[in-house]
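pls ignore typos typing on phone
zinc ion + seq
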Amino acid sequence: MEPISKDKRKYVVINQYKGDIYVHIRTHRINNSGDYFATKWGLALTREQFLALEYHSAAMTEAAEEKAMDVKYHLGSSKFICFNGKIDLRRWFVDNIKGITPGHYGISLTKTEWKKLCKLIPNIKKHLPHIDKVGLCCFGKSREEVMNCINCTPYVR
Ligand SMILES: [Zn+2]
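k done
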C-alpha cells in the first residue's frame, strides 16, 4: 500500500480477488478507529491493464505538461485514462444518446500525484506475479482476435 497523494487519501494497493491480481488506484478514508479503508472511488486494474497504463504513461505526462485536453487512452474493458485538467482514471459506459461517456467510478489525479504514481510503476511491477509473462492484451494479435476480446473491445457484443 503506497500513498500517491500528500493527504494520504489516494493509494495504490495490490490485491488478489477470486484468484486474479489487481492493482487498485483508489481513494481511501479513515474510519473511527483510525484505520484506512478503500472507497469505491478508484479503479482496479488487471495486470494487462496496468501494463497498458505503463505503456501510455509517457504520453499522459506529456498531455498533462502541454494541457492537451481530451487525450484519452483505453486501458482495457471499460477503463480509460484521459487528461481533462487532471489525469483521470475511470470507467466509461455507453450512453444511447451521448455515446461513450465517463461514469461515476474512477479517480482524478493531480500532475504531482500522477508523477508519484509513475515513479511507483517499476516497484509495483516487482510485486505482480509473472508480470514478465503478461503482455499488453492483444498486442500483435489480428483485428478479429482484438474484436473478439472483451478486454480490448468491450462495448461491441
Ligand atoms: Zn485483448
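The first strand starts at residue 2 and ends at 3. Helices lie at 47-66, 111-126, 143-147. more later
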